[in-house]
Amino acid sequence: MKRELTKEDKELAAAGYEHLHEEKGKKVGAEANVQSVDISEHRLAFDELGDALGTVVDGKEPEHSRGLTAEEAKTRLAQDGPNILTPPKKKSAFRKYMDCLLTMFNILLIIAGILEYILLGIDYKDNFQNTYLGGILIAVAFLNAFIEFYQLQKSEAILASFLAMIPPSCRVVRDGTLTSIPAANLVKGDIVLLRTGDKTPADLVIFGSTDLKVDNSNLTGESEPQERRPMPDGSRLSPVEAENLVFNSTLVVNGEGWGVVARTGDHTFIGQIAALTSGETDNKSPLSVEIARFVMMVSTIAIVFAVVFFVVGITTVYKGKASQTVTFAVSILVAFVPEGLPSVVTLLLSIAAKRMAAQNVLVKDLQGVETLVTYLVSQLTLLATDKTGTLTRNQMTVTNLWSGQHMYTAFQSNNDEAETESFSFDKPGMSELVSNASLNSRIKFDRTDVPFGERTILGDATETGLIRFAGRYLVDFDDYVKRHPKVFEVPFNSTNKWALVIVNKTHAEGPLTLYIKGAPERVLAKCSTYLKDGKAEPVTEDFKAAYDSAYNYMASRGHRVIACAQLLLPKAHYPADYAFSRTDVNYPSSDYCFTGLISLEDPPKHGVREAIGTLRLAGIKVMMVTGDHPKTAEAIARKINLILGDTRESLSVKTGRPIEEIYEDEVSAVVVHGDDIDGLQGWQWDQIFSKDEIVFARTSPKHKLEIVKHAQALGHIVGVTGDGVNDSPALKKADLGIAMNISGSDVSKEAANMILLDDNFASTVKGVAEGRQIFVNLKRSIQYTISHSTPEVIPQLLYVVVPIPLPLSAILILVIDLGFELFVALSFAWDKPETADGLMRMPPRKPVSDSSIKLIKKRALRRTKTLRRDPETQEIIRPSRWSLFWGHCKAPFTRDFWEDKMESTEAESLVDKKLLSYAYLEAGVIEMLGGLVAYFVVFWKAGFSPSDLRRAQAASSNGTTYFLKSSPPFVNYRGQTLDAATQVDALGQAQSIVYLSVFIIQCFNVFAVKAKFKFPFGKNAVANYYNFLGILAGACLGVFIVYTPPLHVVFGGSYHLSPLYWLIPIAFGCMLLVWASVRVLLMRKGLRQARVKDIKGLMMCEFVFENVNLRLSFTVPTMRTMSMRSRH
C-alpha cells in the first residue's frame, strides 16, 4: 500500500531546510576606498584612448584589431614590469614560530621546566639533577615548535610550486593573431578578448561587447552581475560606476567583450585598494579543531592527575618534601602529554600534500590539505558532478539531424535505424540547419590565414562541433559568414537556454533573417510553424508526435540535442536599419518556423565508468547535475554506472503500468527535471536523496546551488565537480569544490578548493583512496603514539601510592616521546593499504543514514519551535547575546542536551573511543604489565623483593632516602645488607629495563595497530620498510642511552643490565600481537557488516592505479556475474 504522509511527517521533513530560505546578508566590499582610486582612461573617447595607450582601437570591428607587435609588447613589459599584484602582507616568521610555540603541550612543558628551576633555586644541592630536566623540558618545547614551524614554511613553498603549475592565462591579439599568453606578460595597450568563464587579467576599457556581464562582488559588494558595454565617447562616471571598465580579478559570468589594457599590476583598481590586500586569516581547519580538542582533553587530564597526586604525595608518603612531589607532578605531566604528536601530525600532512600532487590532485591552500584528509578522504558522502567536460570528453561531434520529416546521419554508424538516411546538403531543410549552425555562433579562430581544417576553434564544445560540421559543407566558410554579418544578437545563457541572432541575409520578403537555436522544448515553444519541403506548415499534433519520437531517439542514445528555428523578417516591419534591442525585448520573440533537430555526441571519458563504480562501492553517492535533457542525462548515466536500476518512467515502460500506479519504494533511481526543483517541498527532497541513483537534468546555476544546500542540510558532506561558469556557485558552496584544470574556466577554478590537473575524473578516485589511506595512517600514528602513556603514567602513580622507587624518570619519558617514538610514528606515513580494496569498500567515516537524518531533523524541529517570531510579519527575532550566553549555561541541565550527547552515531572521528580504548586500556595495559614485571624481576635479581622496595621508599617519610650514592646500607628480606652502590646500580638497571620494555613492546605495537582487516602478520603488515628504519633508529638510541656510562649522569641507567632481561618485554610483545589477532576476530563480523555491499548490475573492469607509496586494485563483478549471483 502507498503510505500517506501525516502532518507530523511533513513537519519533520521540512525541519532542517528553513535556514536555506532565510535572507542572507549582502557582502560588503571596500566602499570607503573605491572612490579614491586613480583610474581615468575610461573617460577617453576611442581615438584618444588609442593615442594614450599607443595602440589602435577599432570600435566597429573589434575582432579585426591588430594589437601590439611582439617587439613592442616586450619593450613595454621591460618598462612597466610584469602584470602581477604584490602579495598581501603575511605573518612574520617570528610570529609564526610563536604561534607554534604557544600550544597547550608546549606551554605545559615550559611551565614544568620553570618549576624545576624554581626548585633548583630553593634547594640547589638536593635538586641538582633537575638542572638537566628543566633545561630539557624547555628545550623540547622550543624544538617541537621549530619542527612544526619548519614544516609550515616547507608546506608554503610546496604550495607555491603547485600553484605555479597552473599560471593564469588570457587571450590577447598580438601581430594580428589571437593567442593565449600568461596574464603576467600582459602590457598596457594589449587587446584582450574576454569570454564567459574568464577571470579579467587586468583593468580593461571595453570597446566591443555582446551581453557582457561581470561579477564585481569581491571588489564592490554588488551581489548582482554588472553589464559592461563600449562607450565611444568615454564615461564621465567614477571608475567603479563606469559601464565601459572591467577590473582585474573580476569574473566574466556572461557574454564576451573586447578590451584594451589600461592598467596592470599594482596600478590596477584592486592593486590600489589597501583594504583588499589584508593579511592572512586564522581560520582553523576541521582537523586542527579535532586535534586541538584532543590536546585540550589530554592536557586537562594531565593537570588534574598531577595536582591530585601532588596533594596525595605531599600529605602522605612524601610529607613535607615539596621538591620530590613537584618533580613527580612534572613526571605525570610529561607522561600524559604525547610531546611528539603535533610534530608527527604536521610532518604527516606535509607528506600528504606531496602525494596528492603526485596523483594530479592540487589542493589550493594549506588548510585544504587537512580539509582533503577530513572531508574528501574520509567524510565525503555525496559527489555531485557536471556531465559535459567532467564525465564526458567535451568533444562534440554532430551525429544526427532531423528535418521535421526524415532522420539523417552525419556519419556511417551501425547504431542507426535502417530508415536513417545519410546526410546530404541538398536534402530538404539541411541547408537551413547548416546556415543556423554557422551564422548563429560566437566562436573565434586563432587565425584566419590558414585553411579551415587547420584552424583552432576557440569556443564552447557545442558550438565548436556545429562549426566543424558546417565548415565541411560550406565552400568558403569565411566568405559565407562575412556576406551575412550579424545585425543583432542575444547570446545563450543558462536562464533562457537559447541563443538568437539576426543576420543580414536577403530573402524574398526582406533583407533580414532570424536564427535561434537551443534547448528543444524552449525553441519549440516559440514556434508556430515548421519547415516542410521549403514551406512553412502549421505545427500539428502529428508533427509534435514525430518531434517527440525524433527527440527521444537522439536523447536516449546519450546525445546532446539542439533545436533550430528561423524567421524570415518582412521588410515592411523590419527594414535593414531597424533598431533591435534586448532591454525592452524589441525583437521578434515568437511565431518562429521550426527547421529541425541536431544531435551531438560527447562520449564519456576513459575510466569514468570504473571511477564512478569505485566511488559507489566506497559508499559515496554519486549524482549527475547537468543542463542537458533528462533523456540525454539518463542515457549517459546508464553508460557510466551512475544509473543501474529503474526509474518510475522506465519501470512503467517495462511493466505497462501507468506511472501514477508505481510507488517510490519500487524504484531505486530518479531523474529530476530542473523545472520541478523550485516547487519541491521538504519531504520531496528527502524522497529524492533517499534514492541510490540520482540525476538532475535541465538545471540552472541556481538549481545546482539549491541541490548542494539541501544535501548539506541532511548532513551530507558534499563534493562538487565541474568546469564551467554555471558550476561555480555550487563549487563555492560545496564542502569540497573540485574544478578541472585544462577545460575548466577561470571562474570555476576560483570557486573550487581543489583542482584536477589532468582533467581526469578518475583522479577523484585516486584522491579518495590516497586520502583515506592518509587518514588511516594518521590515526595509526596517533594510536601508536599515545599507547605508551599508560606504561609511563601507572608506574608514576605507584611511586606515590604504594610507594616504590621511581620506575621511569621524567627525562627517560621525554626520550621515549621524542626519541624512538618520533622516528617510528613518522614511518606510518608510508604505510600501504592493509588489503587490496579494504578502504575502498568501507563507507565514509561519517555516513548519512536514516537515523542520522532523523536526528538532524529532530534537532532542527526543536530549534524551530523555540524560535521567537514577530506576530505580524512572522520574521525570526534574533536572541540577544545575553540570551545566547544564558542558553549555553543552562543547556547541561536539560534532558535534550544529554540526549544529544549520548546519542549513538555511526560516525568515526580521528580520536574516538575505540582508539582510546586500545591505546590506554588494551595495548597500554599490556605494555605497563610488561614494564612492571621486568622492573620487579630486575630488582629481585639484585636482592630487592617488592616488599623491600615499598619499605625502602616509605622510609623517605622518616628522613632516610635510599637508592642514592649517599644512602645508608639497606637490609633486605633475606637479611642481606646492600650498600649504596648496589642500590644505585639496581635502580639504574630497573629504570633501564622499564625504558627498554616500553621500546620493545612498542616495536610489536607498530604491527599490532595495523591489524583491522587482517592479522598483524604477513606481507602487508611488514611491507613498509620505513617502520624497520624507525625501529632501528630507536634501538640505536635506546642502547646508546642505557649502555653508555657518561650519559648516566643525565638519564640514569646502568650498563650492567643483561640483554637476557629483554626476553620479558619480548614475551609481552608477542602477547600484544596475540591480542591484536583476537581483536581482529572480534571485530571481523562488524567490519563485514559495515562493508559496502556489492551493487547489482555494476559494470566494472580491473581499475588499477599506483604510485611509489600506494597501489590499489579494484576488481568487482560484472553485470553478468552479479546477475548469476543474485539468483541464489
Summarize the structure.
With 1128 residues, the chain is α+β, with helices and mostly antiparallel strands. 45% of the residues lie in helices and 14% in strands.
Structure, described:
Its main location: membrane. It is a single chain. The protein has 1128 residues and is α+β, with helices and mostly antiparallel strands. Among the domains are: 363-368 and 379-392 and 606-759, 3-Layer(aba) Sandwich (Rossmann fold), CATH 3.40.50.1000; 397-601, Calcium-transporting ATPase, cytoplasmic domain N, CATH 3.40.1110.10; 913-1090, Calcium-transporting ATPase, transmembrane domain (Up-down Bundle). The protein is built from 39 helices and 31 strands. Strand 25, helix 25 and strand 26 (736-740) form a beta-alpha-beta unit. It is elongated, with a radius of gyration of 36 Å. The protein starts with 6 loop residues before the first helix and ends with a helix. The model is unreliable at 23-34, 274-283 and 1102-1128 (pLDDT under 50).
